[in-house]
Amino acid sequence: MISTVLRDRKDLIKTTRLLKKSMKMLFMTNCSVRDQLLSFYVKNVFSRLELPCAPSTRLTSAVKKLRRMVFKLGDKGIYKAIHELDILLPWIQAYIQTIV
Membrane-spanning regions, if any (predicted)? Predict the structure, then answer.
């Protein structure tokens, strides 16, 4: 299971790099690659983490507030959310370490 693999809590594979420089170039220049790569991570990576959580289709009040703020800011809100991924990704890593 994926959660068993995560018990190591860090990337121990130092001889293989998944996201290579050639992928970055494609990501930067090809909208299909951007869409496919982001979709891959959502569907095939994050979804396989088996995080302990009851599924829900309702947004929490905190996420509703975030969503309203992003939409209220329009394009600037989208860029703000993208620039704050450097905050979100460490949160994901820290959370994963607490559950394994």
Answer: none
In this structure, the answer to whether residues 46 and 62 fall within a common structural domain is no
Q: Using the CB atoms, write b or e for 17-47: b if 16+ within 10 Å.
A: eeeeeeeeeeeeeeeeeeeeeeeeeeeeeee
Rounded to whole angstroms, how far apart are CA atoms 81 and 78?
5
Is 14 in a helix, a strand, or coil? coil
Residue 5: pLDDT band (50, 70, 90) is very low
- Give the chain's domain count: 2
CA distance 70 to 73: 5
Residue 62, token pair as written in the block: 């905190």
Query: Which structural domain range is residue 13 located in?
Result: 1-50
Average pLDDT over residues 2-9: 49
Instruction: Report the candidate in 39, 50, 71 with the shortest Cα–Cα distance to residue 4.
Output: 50
